UniProtKB/TrEMBL annotation:
SUPFAM superfamilies xrefs: NagB/RpiA/CoA transferase-like, Winged helix' DNA-binding domain
UniProt-recorded Gene Ontology molecular function terms: carbohydrate binding; DNA binding
Keywords of this entry: DNA-binding, Transcription, Transcription regulation
Family: Belongs to the SorC transcriptional regulatory family.
CggR N-terminal DNA binding domain location: 31-100
Name of the molecule in the record: Transcriptional regulator of gapA (CggR-fructose-1,6-bisphosphate)
The Sugar-binding domain, residue ranges: 106-349
Listed InterPro entries: CggR_N (IPR048715), NagB/RpiA_transferase-like (IPR037171), SorC_transcr_regulators (IPR051054), Sugar-bd_dom_put (IPR007324), WH-like_DNA-bd_sf (IPR036388), WH_DNA-bd_sf (IPR036390)
Record-linked Pfam families: CggR_N, Sugar-bind
PANTHER family per the UniProt record, alphabetical: CENTRAL GLYCOLYTIC GENES REGULATOR, TRANSCRIPTIONAL REGULATOR-RELATED
Keyword Lipid metabolism appears in the UniProt entry: no
Protein source organism: Kyrpidia spormannii
Length: 370
């Protein structure tokens, strides 16, 4: 089925679940319970039964019965290192994730968010990453599953830095389409190593058994340094490869927080505040209407590069990022937005009925950060 046509898929699944609930009422609760076990096991695998029982606040006896059933169905494997999902179990977990979204009403929330932001596809995971950091794993899990659906042999996949995109790489199921190249979307020297785009590209490539490219240039450059580096043959060659990307997975930052993280001078942060910057992606800073109000000198992908890509996947969550997510969604118009309930409800509260529905990047007076 077309991975983009989520509305038709959700409606068909909702009809089936309604019939099941009427015919066999207790099957839904059983399914929810087993989904929780599979989901928690996936995050912790390999994991022992006692540890899993403690985390799930249940008894070993109850858990043993459920695990035995899942094992008999070929969904779980048990060895000396602990319990883990089989490939069949991982596939079922993917399918059940969509079912759970329909059962708890998130499918309706996704539909409304698509309408308000004017996006093609949205997935909303349970919870709020601002209140529960473990939700970041669910964001990564969901985005990774969608990436797997759209990935094709010969693709060049670009990734940005950040903790949420790192979670996507960490939860990418092992798939091997063949002849894949993973590249950092832009430079990132100066950030924590584990959250740099280079590190994430290498991690994702390992999961995909793919090749990867490293791009060791600072995230923030002066105009002189930008021109000098861009003219270097080795840098230009790598930039050419990065701009061949057909898929990009990117995070979304809060404008002022990102500016401070990149150690922008106070006077430049003051300009961002004056211009109402709320969101950041790819070195661009956007106001609440999705207009570019600041642009940073950076080597890597820009908005012009991503406009022709086959799949642009944005992933970010947390109620505190609602304004940033909405602003970047309007500017970048990703094909898929993966977010959480905290951000989704806050976005609807702020933007529903305002009439701004994904018009794309509108450029106000642009200032370049030198």
């Amino acid at each position: 089925m077309d991975p983009w046509n989520v509305e038709r898929r959700d409606e068909a699944m909702k009809s089936l679940l309604t019939l099941q609930q009427r015919l066999v009422p207790d099957v839904i609760e059983t399914m929810k319970g087993r989904f929780r076990i599979l989901r928690q096991m996936y995050d912790m695998q390999p994991v022992g039964r006692r540890t899993l029982a403690q985390v799930m606040d249940t008894t070993e006896r109850i858990l043993r019965g459920e695990v035995d059933f899942l094992k008999d169905q070929g969904l779980v494997a048990v060895d000396s290192s602990g319990m883990r999902l089989t490939p069949l179990g991982e596939s079922l977990l993917d399918a059940l994730g969509e079912v759970m979204g329909i059962l708890d009403g998130r499918a309706d929330l996704e539909r409304e968010l698509r309408r308000v932001l004017g996006l093609r596809a949205v997935r909303v995971v349970s919870g709020d990453v601002d209140e529960n950091p473990e939700v970041k794993g669910d964001l990564g899990f969901t985005a990774a599953r969608f990436l797997r659906e759209v990935l094709r042999r010969g693709d060049v996949v670009a990734v940005t830095g950040g903790t949420t995109v790192a979670a996507v790489a960490a939860r990418m199921p092992p798939v091997h389409p063949g002849n894949i190249l993973v590249v950092p979307a832009r430079g990132g020297v100066g950030e924590r190593v584990e959250y740099q785009a280079n590190t994430i590209a290498a991690d994702l490539a390992e999961r995909l058994r793919a090749e990867y490219l490293l791009f060791h240039v600072p995230d923030r450059l002066s105009e002189e340094a930008y021109r000098s580096l861009a003219g270097e043959p080795q840098i230009a060659e790598k930039l050419h490869l990065i701009r061949q990307a057909s898929i990009v997975v990117h995070g979304i930052g809060q404008a002022i927080a990102m500016a401070r993280r990149r150690r922008l001078p106070p006077e430049e942060i003051a300009v961002l505040e004056e211009r109402g910057a709320v969101g950041e992606a790819f070195g661009y800073y956007f106001d609440q209407d999705g207009r570019i109000v600041y642009q940073q000198h950076t080597l890597g992908l820009g908005l012009g590069d991503i406009s022709g890509m086959r799949a642009v996947i944005a992933v970010a969550g947390g109620r505190g990022k609602a304004g940033a997510i909405a602003a970047v969604a309007k500017a970048v118009a990703p094909h898929m937005l993966v977010t959480d309930e905290g951000a989704a409800w806050e976005i609807l509260a702020r933007y529903k009925g305002c009439g701004d529905q994904g018009e794309g990047a509108k450029t106000a007076e642009i200032h370049e950060i030198s």
